[in-house]
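2024-03-11 09:14:02 DEBUG pipeline.ingest accepted 1 chain
2024-03-11 09:14:02 DEBUG pipeline.ingest length=420
2024-03-11 09:14:03 DEBUG pipeline.predict start
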Amino acid sequence: MQNNPVKLRMLIALLGTGLQLLSPMPYGLLQAQTPGCTDPLASNYNPAATKNDGSCGYPAANVDAAASLNLPALLTESSGLLWHKGYLWSHNDDSDTALWYWLPDVAPMLNSKAIAGVRNNDWEDLTRDDRYFYIGDFGNNGSGNRRNLNILRIADPAAQSGTLHADTIWFTYEDQTDFSQQAANSTDYDCEAFVAAGDSLYLFTKQWLSQKTACYVLPNTPGKHVAKLRAVLDVQGLITGASMLQGQQLVVLCGYSKSLQPFIYLLYDFEGLRYFSGNKRKINMNLPFHQVEGITTNNGLDVYVSNEQLKQVITITPKIHRLDLRAFLSAYLGSTRRLIFEDPFNSFKVHASGAALYVSRPKGNPEDFWQITDQGGRILDSGFTNGPVSEIPIQQLKAGLYYLRIGKGKEAYTCKWIKE
């Protein structure tokens, strides 16, 4: 196959409902696709589009809190939030050096794990990958000239007992050259949100004057690094938290306006790790004057946000809120319209859902042999495509890695995918 010039040249990954494609994409797919807005919820949805070009626009929308619970006095400044192994994890902004955790959707009974030998200058967000927790000590709104921006890396706290220990990832922004003292809340180099992906960390800044956010990337390994600027997005607000649903091309940001109108910002159906390249939708939360700081989700549909205690003209107590985003994301996360494979001559396409693979025949209606095999090469099912759209059931398969092969000999194509 590797000697055939029309065969597959790059890897793509995509999750449908319980399905992840791991196979290469044909080189010719780029020529065959039609760019446009692919989200049916958008105002400018184009049903003929097969490639999301990031142009979707959306009507104004609001979301209520499905549930809200008070946070205990020990966690009045919940600045980062993370779902992990059935618990919500958080930390205070600058008052202690502990991770706090509790069961969601019940009155919080806090447990804590202390972190030895670290300092809480301005902890602002919490994220993780498969091995580590990361705490972002990168708040910089006081004078905008911190020289000790860092991220703490901790081996999975849920797998440890006793005091935790951390490595330190130090960094600077590649485009920050002025380190003179600035007025409070006037810098572009404040940060309160980040996510972990692959071998890197992606930061979303809180640009006080422009009301934009810039995405920077740096390695996730201890040492001194330079955060590289990737892209800038005009969110018309102050970004304070981030959460990513691994494999589903979904990042959820939270923030608020200068008048303390909280919002969430959905980034989804983007290309690779280019978070601003896909759909971008802002949704206001019906929680006026709440200084939301932390956000997390384990399924993309139930999203938790926390707000710090606010004592100004009015008093807002620290709380944890659950938002139901099914009206906004169910169609995307459960879509069967998502293209996962197309041969370079556009003679067939494969779409996916949790229960079936769908083989579409845009050109004519020829029959093609197909078979599904497991990792060991054992044939589990086979047949022939028939009609404009052929449905290949997969609900009988257990969770695992499989191969769908279409065609025979040199003209065969293979999709490698995971059923979860």
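2024-03-11 09:14:41 DEBUG pipeline.report The radius of gyration is 23 Å.
2024-03-11 09:14:41 DEBUG pipeline.predict end
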